[in-house]
Structures are given as C-alpha cells and as structure tokens.
UniProtKB/TrEMBL annotation:
CDD domains, per the entry: YjgF_YER057c_UK114_like_1
Top-level taxon: Bacteria
UniProt entry keywords in alphabetical sequence: Signal
Pfam families, per the entry: YjgF_endoribonc
Native species: Synoicihabitans lomoniglobus
Residue ranges of domain Endoribonuclease L-PSP/chorismate mutase-like in the record: 28-170
Keyword Cell membrane: no
Signal peptide span: 1-20
InterPro entries for this protein: Endoribo_LPSP/chorism_mut-like, RutC-like_sf
Name the record gives this protein: RidA family protein
C-alpha cells in the first residue's frame, strides 16, 4: 500500500475512535436500564412537543419494584438517597423522551431541568440533590446534556415523593 493510503486510513480510524458516542450508545455502555415510560396519574399529558422543543411533565422516582420513592430529604432521606432518587427520576425522564422520539439520539440539547426537593424549610442543599439528575444527563448526552436549571425546596410533593423533576429538550 502507498504511504498516502495508509495515512488516510490511519486518520479515518483515529477519527472514528474520537467520534463522540451517541446518547443511545452511552446508555448502553453505562449499563443503564430505562424503566417503562410512566403514564399520567392525573389530568395532564406526559409530553408536549412544540416546534423543536419537547416539554416533559414532572416525573418522580421509583425503585426497582416500581414503588414511589418517598420521604423528606434531611429528615427521613439522606443526601445520598435523595441524589439516587434524582438519578432514578432522570432515567424516567429519558424513558419518556425515548418513547416520544423513538431514540435519544434525536435530542440535540437538554435545555432546562426543573427540580423540586421534598425538604424542611431549613434545608438548603437542593442543588446537590438535583445534581443526581444533572450528572446523569451529562453522562448520557455529553456537552449537549449541560442545561439551565432550577432546584427548589418544597414542603411537600405529590405522593410524598422525594423529588419531582421536569425537563425541556431541543430535538430534531
């Protein structure tokens, strides 16, 4: 083979190796299992799409048996447990996105995350709790997973859930 052919082949192989993995590939390589997409429990829809934006309703965390994860952070729930609940909520959000779009690869960017934390009035680490969701979104989407965010403390949440998180994504 000519040297020029070998160089081109080398650049192609190197380029493929440097190619960022797709979100679906990341889900697989991280060993993530998305739960079944949740159905609404009241008078709302789980997803609204307008133009190139998808708005996901608030999602709540469930354990491996499908039971709602409940409790007040800082009282009956530790920080680690709350972050895990936020991570599980992110998985539920991804499941809804995948069901709506057919593939997470259609997500161009996570635009905004809105997180609510069930906590007492003197609890001030809501951002640390919602990092459980944000960190997972960045693991799956890379820089396109970096988002604007709010993390708010709530005196109570529906079903006494530990967190409730909504999401806005830009899609193709």
């Amino acid at each position: 083979m000519k040297l020029s052919t070998l160089l081109v082949m080398g650049f192609l192989i190197a380029g493929a190796a440097l190619r960022a993995a797709t979100p679906e590939e990341n889900v697989k390589s991280l060993g993530l299992v998305l739960p079944p997409a949740a159905s609404p429990v009241a008078n709302y829809v789980p997803v609204v799409r307008t133009g190139d934006l998808v708005f996901l309703a608030g999602h709540i965390p469930r354990d491996d048996a499908g039971q709602v994860i409940t409790g007040k952070v800082g009282e009956t729930v530790t920080m680690a447990e709350a972050q895990d609940a936020a991570r599980r909520t992110a998985l539920a959000l991804l499941a809804t996105l995948r069901q709506e779009l057919g593939s997470l690869d259609r997500v161009k960017r996570i635009v905004r995350v809105e997180g609510f934390v069930n906590c007492p009035t003197d609890f001030t680490a809501q951002s640390s709790v919602i990092n459980g969701c944000s960190d997972l979104l960045i693991e799956v989407f890379g820089d396109q997973g970096r988002h604007a965010r709010m993390a708010i403390g709530a005196g109570s949440l529906p079903l006494n859930t530990t967190v409730e998180i909504a999401l806005i994504a830009e899609v193709d």
